[in-house]
Specification:
Layout (H helix, E strand, L loop, with lengths): L1 H19 L4 H12 L15 H4 L3 E3 L7 E5 L6 E2 L13 E3 L4 E5 L12 E3 L4 E4 L13 E3 L4 E5 L10 E3 L4 E5 L16 E3 L23 H47 L3 H8 L2 E3 L9 H6 L1 E8 L2 E7 L5 E7 L6 H12 L9 E6 L4 E6 L6 H6 L11 H29 L17
Parallel strand pairs: 2-4, 3-5, 4-6, 5-7, 6-8, 7-9, 8-10, 9-11, 11-12
Antiparallel strand pairs: 1-2, 13-17, 14-15, 15-16, 16-18, 17-18
Length: 438
């Protein structure tokens, strides 16, 4: 009897081990075929002897035991050539990110092979030809970005109820935007020769026509308006955070016990491996380092905020970056990566771009360029001596307007992200850094 129990235990644990370390064989072969047929400027470290799910850059597998490749992110790798047909073999993809490469030629005709795809980003390449109508078969698609290519022809009728984010700007599209897509902002179609269907503006009565005023606001008045608007925006954010925080607490109080039980009984070797994490870099980033490099870097505190502390980190290769170390941000790996995808794609002259991020169970980092011009606080309050030159009103107004533009852009992206993932982006506005030009 005892031998049977021991044998059964060995069989069970052996099966669990094999499942935890299983490799997506067909998907892995498709990626190796793909990388063998293209040229790229960065080393993707894809080695058939290593685990695709745990070691390959840009590859994320799902978290259940099937170990299939769910997300492929190859942004800014200098990949050139036609759309890789080998990727069509990855039938279980939920996210495909190929932006900021040098792909050319037409898009594949049949997108329906990716029946579970929710995010498709092929922006900033040189794809041409028409947009395939088969994209409308992606019934789970929530975000589609084909901006900054050379696509032509009519805008297809993409009747996808789940679609929340759309960007077709800066192509060669023509014709009339279909009625199913008029719900998206006009910026999604800018840079094309298309006609937007819209309702005529309401006719104003003579008494409702605003009168023109010859007088202009003074600079102090403009500054007051801008600062007041910024303050109102932050108050709104605070209220939203309070509401979402309370709802999260209510949900945790209901599901806390069952969650703890599941957590204690369903930990696998693959999950422990995922918790170790690695530094993920975004497009246009020429930095190369890992977590150990950041930990060895000499650090100087730049500021402290609600969700963490920002440091100036001087790496051993003389590179200097700004690192935001997040604290008390309770979010899963997949949700965190999805938030970083949105944050990392924000581009605005008054918003510092996110260059890289790191996620593990105990450490969450965001890496930005380091700007040595100082902060607004330093400009206003530093150098109190007689040789101090105070900021004039023109400079102060310029700072306020620049900050307002950056905040407005962040809030726009935040509202889109909230519409896309509902409450998963509650920390999003605080994860950005305003950059000012004087």
């Amino acid at each position: 009897m005892g031998n049977k129990i021991i044998f059964s235990a060995i069989l069970v644990y052996g099966t669990l081990f094999l499942l935890a370390t299983a490799e997506p064989g067909d998907d892995k072969k498709a990626l190796l075929d793909f990388i063998g047929n293209i040229s790229h400027s960065r080393n993707l470290n894809w080695d058939e002897r290593t685990s695709a799910c745990n070691s390959w850059i840009g590859v994320t597998c799902n978290h259940d035991r099937s170990r299939i490749i769910a997300i492929l992110s190859l942004r800014s790798n200098g990949i050139s050539g036609p759309f890789p047909s080998d990727l069509l073999k990855l039938g279980n993809l939920t996210g495909l990110y190929l932006q900021f490469n040098n792909f050319q030629g037409p898009l594949p005709l049949d997108f329906s092979v990716w029946k579970n795809l929710s995010v498709l980003n092929l922006s900033n390449n040189d794809f041409n030809g028409s947009i395939p109508s088969s994209i409308s078969n992606l019934t789970h698609l929530t975000a589609l970005d084909l901006a900054n290519n050379s696509l032509s022809g009519d805008v297809p009728d993409l009747d996808i109820p789940t679609l929340q984010l759309l960007d077709l700007s800066n192509n060669n599209l023509t014709g009339v935007v279909p009625q199913t897509l008029v719900r998206f902002p006009s910026s999604a179609f800018s840079g094309n020769n298309v006609t937007l269907q819209s309702l005529p503006p309401p006719v104003l009565s003579p008494t409702a026509v605003p009168k023109k005023h010859s007088s202009k606001f003074s600079e102090p008045a403009i500054l007051g308006i801008v600062i007041g608007s910024c303050a109102a925006a932050f108050v709104l954010i605070a209220l939203l955070l309070i509401v979402t925080y309370r709802k999260k607490k209510d949900d945790e109080s209901i599901t806390g016990v069952s969650h703890k039980k599941e957590k204690s009984t369903k930990r696998t070797a693959s999950e422990h491996q995922d918790e170790n994490g690695r530094v993920i870099f975004f497009e246009g980033c020429n930095l190369v380092f890992d977590l150990e490099d950041l930990l060895r870097a000499s650090a100087e505190v730049l500021g402290k905020g609600t969700f963490g502390t920002t440091y100036k980190a001087a790496l051993e290769d003389s590179t200097t970056v700004a690192v935001k170390r997040l604290k008390e941000v309770i979010v899963g790996k997949r949700d965190f990566e999805q938030q970083m995808e949105v944050v990392g794609n924000i581009r605005h002259e008054n918003v510092a771009p996110l260059r890289a991020y790191f996620y593990s169970k105990d450490e969450k980092l965001m890496v930005y360029d380091y700007y040595n011009q100082g902060s607004v606080s330093a400009l206003l309050h530093a150098k109190r001596g007689e040789d101090r030159i105070p900021l004039d009103w023109g400079t102060r107004v310029k700072i306020a307007i620049g900050a307002a533009k950056g905040i407005a852009h962040i809030l726009t992206k935040w509202w889109q992200a909230c519409a896309w993932k509902h409450q998963g982006f509650k920390y999003f506005p605080q994860l950005r850094t305003i950059r000012l030009h004087l």
